[in-house]
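Most newcomers find our protein records easier to grasp once they have seen one. The structure tokens are whole numbers drawn from a learned vocabulary of backbone shapes. The record below serves as our worked example for the rest of this section.
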Amino acid sequence: QVQLVESGGGLVQPGGSLRLSCTVSGTIFSIYTMNWYRQAPGKQRELVAGISSGGSTNYADSVKGRFTISRDNSKNTVYLQMNSLKPEDTAVYYCNCRRVVVPRGDYWGQGTQVTVST
């Protein structure tokens, strides 16, 4: 059974930083692309950042230069370092583990709340 456990969310003031973590168990972590999505109230879930099994990264335009995604295959963990946070970054952040070739898989964490507010 594949499990994704996120941590690191919370309340932070504008301009502050947070680091989200997502630890995966029950599968071979290193072969999956890992993604962070977010969903704000009343909005669709959107892709924030992704990192491939080979280490290539991609970011939403809204977070480029502020957020950094990384992975530690020895710890089965993906991170999202979020700097210069803005109120519009407020959302539930979800970790996603995906592979589109065999062995295929698409797994999600439970989400962690990030609130940017004074």
Q: What stands out?
A: The mean pLDDT is 96. Residues 58 and 115 are 23 Å apart (CA to CA).
